[in-house]
Amino acid sequence: MSDFEWTVEIDKGSGDGIKVDMPVISEQGLVGKVVKVTATGSQVLLLPDLDSYVATRLVLSQETGLVQGQGRADMVMSDIDQTAEVAVGEPVITSGYSGGLYPSGLPVGTVASVTVDPSTGAKDIRVAPYVDFSNLDVVLVVDSFDQG
Question: For residue 64, what are the contacts with CB-CB under 8 A and spacing of at least 6?
Answer without folding.
Answer: 55, 56, 57, 58, 79, 80, 95
